[in-house]
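ok so I'm stuck.
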Amino acid sequence: MRSCDRSMRPRSPMSFFAAIRSSLRITRAWRARAGQKRWTPTRRRNSPNAGGCDFRRTVDNTKGVIWAPYALPTVVTLTQTPEDLADPRLVLGAHSLRSILTIDQDDQIVELRGACLRVHKAGNAGGSAAVLLPLDRLFEIRTAASLRLWRALAGRSPGPDLGTLTPDRRNRLILALRALDGRLSGASYPKIAAILFDAAPISKRDWISHELRDQTGRIVRLGFSMMRGGYRRLLLHPYRRRV
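replied:
not stuck anymore, here's the structure
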């Protein structure tokens, strides 16, 4: 009877972990006998959509980074004009276009009339160059970037860059990053709201019906969304849908 009572007693945490280690040793021994290879973690490759492989620095590091055309829709892709569409009478006579096409680098940042334009040459783009515009959801953004390049080459003002974040959008992203830092540090939502919006300390009782509750929740969710990969959508601005 004593032996049965001893077996029914609850084991201590140390004995529980010892049993787990023993079972793991038995499993490894069984796999070795069965000739199975031991699992080894594979080296993780850089994701082509994470930003690490989508851009490179310029030679002089003064004009920023050069993004790949598929990562940044404001990159204008120049290609050779088809023979059916080429008309010598309508070719732009701008010297800047010929200087762009004669440079050996396929990706470059061109300064025209006070604007920095990102250009990518696909294949052999001759004097009669054309713009490659994929019919995708970013068609409007690519078209606007192409129009800015065309205006600059024609001697006109390029116009505003649609890919630039507005001041309100930048301020909201700054608040989201600050809220994210506070939340990861263990700060409560009322404390985050009081700091972000320069408000008086909010009690738990008043927080239930406070006017800043929903707004603070949205900003914190935006911060976590940006941390989990949502920052990549900033490259597609002003495209607002998820990809």
